[in-house]
Amino acid sequence: MALTIREEKEFKYIDEGSGEVLLLLHGLFGALSNWEGVVNSFKGKYRVVIPLLPIYDMPLKQAGLDGLKNFLERFVSLKGLKNMTLIGNSLGGHVGLIYTLSNPEKVKSLVLTGSSGLFENSMGGSFPKRGSYDYIKERVAYTFYDPATATKELVDEVFETTKSIPKCLRIVAIAKSAQRHNMAKEIQRIKQPTLLVWGLNDTITPPMVAHEFNKLIPNSELHFIDKCCHAPMMEHPEKFNDILNKFLDAKRDDS
C-alpha cells in the first residue's frame, strides 16, 4: 500500500492512524518509504508520523545536524506532538538523540536502529561519485546484508539525487557534521527508555557501536537481528516490528 504524503507549510510528511505518537526519522539517503512496514504494522493502534527531512534542499549554511534538529522542532511544534516515541535509523537516530536531549519533555521513549552518533563508516569517500550508476548501485547494496534488497527503484532514487551538485554539497555537509558530532558524553544524560535494534552484520555502524550505545545510555536494551545490515526495518520488517511492538507494549504497561 502506497503511503500518502501530506504537505503543510515547509513540510512534507506522512501522518497515519491515531493514538500515541510514533515519530519516525529516516537516514541520509533514506526516504519515507523506508518505514512502510512500520507504518502498516502500527497505524492500527498508534499515530505514525514521518517528516521528510530536508536533506537535499535546506539552505547550505544550515546543512548539518543543528539545522535538522531545528527543522524537527518546527515540525513538532506545528503538529502539536507530545509524549512521542522517537524512532530513528542511521542519521535519523543521530538527529533523534540531539532532539531528545534538547526537548526531553516531548519524548517518552527512544528507538535507535543503525544510528550514527558514535562511529560510522561513510558511504565511501567524502563526495558521492556523480555519474557512475554502478558505483551508486554498489554503495546502496553495501547498506544491506542481501544485495537484492537494493532494488532498482531504490538505486535509481539515490542515483538521481547524486547527479545534482547542490544536493551532493548538502549531503557532504550533513555527513561531515555527523562525523564531527560524537555524542559519547551527551547520551549518558538520556533518561528515556531506549530500544536499540541492530543488524548483526551492519558494516556502517558495526555491532560494537550498538554495544557502546547500550553501555552509555542508562536505560537501554539491545537486540540484534542476524543476516541483517544497516536498515533492519527494511531487511527484516517482521522481526523489527516484533521487537518494537514488545518494547512499546512494555512501556504502555509501565505508564
UniProtKB/TrEMBL annotation:
Residues covered by the AB hydrolase-1 domain: 21-131, 180-237
Entry keywords, A to Z: Hydrolase
Entry's Gene Ontology molecular function annotations: hydrolase activity
Pfam families registered for this protein in UniProt: Abhydrolase_1
Full protein name: Alpha/beta fold hydrolase
